[in-house]
Amino acid sequence: MLGERKDQHLDIVLSGRGQGDGAGTGLEAVRFVHCALPEMDLDEVDLGTVFLGRPIAAPLLVSSMTGGPARAAAINRHLAEACEALRLPLAVGSQRVALEGAARAGWGRICGAWRRRCRCWPIWGGAAQHRLRRTRGAGRGRDDRGGCADPASQPAAGGRAARGRPELARDPRTDRGAGPPPFRADRGQGGGGGLSGAVARQLWNAGVQVLDVAGSGGTSWAAVEAERARTPAEAAVARAFAGWGIPTARAIAEVRAACPDAVVIGSGGIRDGLDAARAIRLGADLVGQAAGLLAAATEGPEAVAEHLSVMIRQLRVACFCTGSRDLAALRRAPLQD
Fold this sequence. Notes:
EC number: 5.3.3.2
Number of strands: 9
Radius of gyration: 19 Å
Helix content: 40-55%
Number of helices: 14
Keywords: Cytoplasm, Flavoprotein, FMN, Isomerase, Isoprene biosynthesis, Magnesium, Metal-binding, NADP
CATH superfamily of the domain at 30-59 and 77-88 and 142-155 and 181-330: Aldolase class I
Enzyme class: isomerase
Domain FMN-dependent dehydrogenase: 202-334
Order of helices and strands: HEEEHEHHEHHEHEHHHEHEHHH
Largest sheet: 5 strands, parallel
CATH architecture of the domain at 30-59 and 77-88 and 142-155 and 181-330: Alpha-Beta Barrel
CATH class of the domain at 30-59 and 77-88 and 142-155 and 181-330: Alpha Beta
Structural class: alpha/beta
Shape: globular
GO molecular function: FMN binding; isopentenyl-diphosphate delta-isomerase activity; metal ion binding; oxidoreductase activity
């Protein structure tokens, strides 16, 4: 049943029926002051950065998409191969299918293959499932340290547990390695509802070091669940929250202000490299994209690599047009009033 649900999610998002009520990410309101004399060449722009101690080619992250049905194996393989070729980090999708016993699906089947394909770049994934791993002994050897909740608007088959996640950061059983784990928190209860500054600070105080804002304005998991609802009542409950959440732009600014030393990932409705530049200007260290990549991921690694390469070129042009030689300069680029 879990695999079927994940398969339905893919179909709905690919069809475009998983969008919210039309409310934007807020990034469209961020407008740079154009620099007519950048005093540098386009090729001089340096987009390189470091993520979890590893150098990456650009501040882009392939965000969590799917870890459930059999077709996800091909999607995830395409993503992994493209990330390896472009030197970009990758986030895995839901781990619940693997942890609940379907070893042929999710992380249980493809973890080794992913790591062979992405030998140099960070991989990480879901988090509500840490409690499952801890209590059921599954998922050993994973490279992720994560945190996300399934939408509350899902039927009973979905994940609704929301207790105890900050405490995971303090529990040594969730990490077998040396030193503090780079815990990641994302999505919030409701999926794409955004991370507030207050909750971000609570997570930071609990030991979470990487915060993915997963703001509203892109895929709405309430809208997705409304599409696959079993009854009109279930659809009505979910559809009422199709526009719920903190817009991505506001979430990034709030989280950065609340946690100045955290690694902040700006995600939620990121459309292109210009949106990535806007998110970085607001305080994101990295920018994540998921739904915008899904169609390419169904085609092959070449399509994924081309999509990401276009985003990187757009981000480079944004830096050039603001006179920013690197990401540090982009974060200081002047904005229009």
